[in-house]
Amino acid sequence: MTQPTLTFHDGHTMPQFGLGLWQVDRDKAADITRDAIEQGYRLIDGAWIYGNEDGQGAGVSASSVDRADIFVTSKVWSNGMSHDDVRNAVQASLDKMKLDYLDLMLLHWPFQDADVMVTAWKALIDARKDGQVRSVGVSNFHAHHLDRIIGDTGVVPVLNQIEVSPRLQQAEMRRVNASHGIITQSWTPLGQGRSFDAEPITAAAARAGKTPAQVILRWHIQMGCSVIPRSTKSERLAENFDIFDFELTEQEMDAIATLDQGERTGPDPDQFDMKA
Question: Which of 50, 77, 121, 219 is the catalytic position?
Answer without folding.
Answer: 50
